[in-house]
Records
---
Amino acid sequence: MKGRIENIQHLRGIAAMMVVFVHFPTALQKFCGSIGVDLFFFISGFIIYISIERTGYYNRPLVFLKKRLLRIVPLYFAVLGLYLLMHLVLNSLRSSSIAPHYNIYDILKSFLFIPISENGVYKDPVVFLGWSLNFEMFFYLMTFTVLLVFRKKYFLPLLSLLILLPVTGLIAGGFENVYLDFFTSSFLFYFCIGLLIGHYQDRISNFFASFSEVIFFASVYVLFLVMLGRDYGYEHTGITREMVIYDHVAYQRFLIWGIPALFFFLSYFSISKKYNISNRFLNELGNRSYSIYLLQVFFIQVLYEIGYKFNETGIVFLSIILMALLVWVSGLSYKYFEKRFHA
């Protein structure tokens, strides 16, 4: 099992850096899109299944919820609090800040992992990266509820919910109400698939074993074509990141980014097991992945604050320096803050 967990750590690190790359103007920015989040959602479903089966959380649902909250909440609250403080300071030094303005209700919803709606339109949390954590938290609460009711027989009921809710959203064509759209989001499919991969991991590895290399390079190539092609970002209706604009047409994100990300996940999972891949750097990057994901918001701010002083080449070098600093600081965050809550 050690090898399997290690390859998931590799994927966590890769996913975190993909998200970082898209937020800094380097040669990798366009290629990465936001597929790092797609990978994170697959990984999350996988990890939840493994952790439940390993520890018997189906008999201890409250312990399951406590552990998941301790993984997510402390660092997010710390980053959110520091981010708010940073902008209070910036606003006191000048007439306006780069950050959007939020009222007290928006701030409370950000802390409570509740989607924000303004005049019926979705709005990102104060720390914009928290949008994905809203889905993570919904998944954890859904899993906790199912464990509470079904105990050891949790798998099929949870799987059914993770299929039924997004199918309802797809049949309805999405909902104009932000909250209904959130609870029936197609992002729930990612967690569902992650659970299935966890459940059938040995069969999947064996199935892909003979041609995993081909699938791996094919998925990378497809991602490369997609990201360098006619990708124009998100459609801003409902939960804005469910749909992506490709060649001026809105598509379900899963079709454009999710499917190649899934094959990347499956093929690397199989390859790393097949060749017993062990990489200390990727493993450490995986340990730091959550800190990397959240702390980048401060480094993005630094880029916005001083980037105008540099020419195009200078901004690229500045971005590389900031990303390197982010990885280093995230190591300190993981060692001295995150690990304190990993019981």
Note: The mean pLDDT is 87.
---
Amino acid sequence: MKALITRKLGMTSILDEKGAATPVTLLSASPNVVTQLKNTDTDGYRALQLGFETNKRPAKPQAGHFKASKQSPKIVREFRITGDEEIEKDVGDQLAADSFEVGDIVSVTGVSKGKGFAGTIKRHNFHRGRKTHGGRSYRRPGSIGSMFPQRIFPGKKMAGQMGHEQVTTKNLSVAIIDTDLQVIGVKGAVPGPRKGIVLIKGTKS
């Protein structure tokens, strides 16, 4: 199983043999530490728990959790293990950028940029109202229901909080591996702002 906790550095582009530019997102993959291996007997599910960087203000339960791996408190994330995937690592082992290879198919998960409270045009791509012949409803949502039933159905597209939600992008490929700088380059865009935490997990191609 290939998995890492990374930080988004930004985007750049690379040129292939024909001179075509390909957008690439760079991820900082400083060494991860295996902090726990969860199994169905004790935890009810299988997962690989990794620690990343340093948690500057851990609570006492979190600080004690890292005694088994003999590590300082870290930022922790879990990667679910499905099917018959095998884990070749043990608690305390380290994972780095060389866990992946160029050409690997991966899925990335991050928290998208928060846009605040947004109207229906920006949030759901609604059309604006006409600006001629006396039209005054330019950016209003329009009708949100009929006379019956006298309520709004759940899930109705309306104005509200936009962004700042977990997003997973699948079937991206690894374009760059730099073991000296501990950087992974992934083709395409990755959700989240710069310096945001991004989870990268290999998929079976």
Note: The chain has a mean pLDDT of 91.
---
Amino acid sequence: MGLYPYQACLEAMQKFTGQRDAATMDEIWLLQHLPVFSQGQAGKPEHILSPGVIPIVQSDRGGQVTYHAPGQLVVYLLLNLKRLHLGVRQLVSIMENSIIALLHEYGIQSNIKHAAPGVYVAGRKLASLGLRVRRGCSFHGLALNVDMDMHPFKQINPCGYPDLSMVQLCDLYPDCDIDRVEISLLDQLCHHLGYNKRLESIVVNETLISAPIGAC
């Protein structure tokens, strides 16, 4: 989907989830956002230290405040969890394990923290997770820092943790390319979700034409 404003994408996810039925195919959206602080449902204003000119958008995902910008790969998982026989905790594990497998391709060892979902490298957070489930269907997903301006993370307490250090993939593997990362992460997600094929969505005249990800 390329570079997509956060508010517009939020509304598109809400609309898609509200209108889908038992026969609606699952979708995975891959995109980047314009600079924005997104505040989750559990977010507290005191964790936004100095927003400056960066807009703040109240989101309906779980979690607290985080930062999005070009160079960060965002993946939204619009899935019928009932049909997939998945619980929220299982979907979180699928996202985390997919990212860990991706990083393994780059020779990077990473880990998770059960009390603070996400993926970490040497104590620094590389990927953040946030979900919402409505009528048994998920939306929102994950944000993987690849090659972005990291400074605005210092203007917030990321995910509500004052001492949390953030990191991006290009600091760990300087030759990484976000387009290749995107393809590899999508393949890992499809594999861990049990999909046997995938078709990519396309954008025509700035209108999203959604193709099915595939049968599971």
Note: Residues 198-216 have pLDDT under 50 and may be disordered.
---
Amino acid sequence: MKTTVADERPEQPDADEAAGRLAVLWRRLLRDLRNPLFLNGYALMANTGVTAVLGMGYWLLAARLYSPEDFGRSQALITAMRLFAGLIALGLTGALARFIPVAGKRTGALISGGYLVATLTAVVAAGGFLLTLPFWGANYATLAGTGPGLFFLASVAIWSVFTLQDVTLAGMRKAVWVPVNSLCFGLVKMGLLVALAGALPDDGIYVSWIVPTALALIPINLFIFCVLVPRHAKLAPAGSRPPRPREIGRFLAGDYPGAFSILAIVYFLPVYVASRVSGEMFGYFAMAQTLGAMIELLAINMATSLTVAGSADRSQLAANCRQALRRSYLIIGPVSLVTVVAAPLILSVFGPGFSEHGTPLLRLMALAVLPRVLIEIYLSALRARSRARGLALVQIGLAVLVLSSSLILLPVAGITSVGYGMLFSELLVALLIFGGLRKILQHAETPQPASAREAPEAASWSS
């Protein structure tokens, strides 16, 4: 049988085919970046990546420059500060994401009102915490006294506004500025951490966290109120109706109980753990929990962008949900897998104690993010449709499950109990809401007048 020269050539990879695939991926990325949903979502995910990288660098320096006890105690103080700062601010993030896209000329008043309410409530709640310091254990004893107490109250007020400004940028579809802000904030924070290691060996971590935050508020909010808000109001569609106070109040009445429940998981649970363990052990817990929460933020950020896009055009909600779900798993799936495999290596860079005590917790949290994607997409679809009853039901149920299971297991499993509680609870809730999510993914929705969207429908969506 006669062979040809072509038959004798060894098989080569099809370079043209590979180049074609890269070109398709590049065109798809460019198309996504022209879509406000994905531009906002990718920007917020990029912010999570920037925060994760700089955060790891920051805590790596802190672990090297400060004692394990001071490291853990500072983590406890930062967690308590974020708990009270988010007491109302985290509840308002959903409302701002929902109503800023349609607020029009009232956008500035909506944002500034949110800032004011969040700050005042947070300071009052933090004041109550300072009055009950003996209950919260040795890790919080350094807040006793007028000077430390006032600094703590100021830091709570600062972080309240800082919490809301990112979602404000996302609500006006300018989330591309969020990672820029995080980059500058992270670099300044790291520099100050090093500078204060000798001057403030006990409190340098906490001070280096708060001072750059306060400095970052000034330029970002000048940009928001002097540039973005007037532009957003000017570009409001003709005939658009800003949200009425009653409409916002009705949304918050349904959304806030759920947001408060999530706050209990993210911040109250660590504060409680800090009150029951040593500063050194809490440092191990907090590092693993921080890294796990960064992965979880990837899901939450895409969901926030989905809320904004769904509020502006509900007819595309089903399609946006499907696309956001696919892209979320394309990004989060590999990140979760790598974290599970490499958890000991990741934590070992902070020291042997972190790897030994924190690896099981980080692995469990990385696995828990996978069902959390389904939950966050479902919750954002409910927010976009103003389904407050369903929001509260899912979030309160999740919080009750996580808190109860974690606290029950704490005396037995130690700091790893939180990981077991989160994985079990989020798997169970994802199974319970799967039917409702499938309905949203399968059925496109046509715009309806407000009178046609009543509360009874919310119950069917949350079933």
Note: Residues 84 and 122 are 5 Å apart (CA to CA).
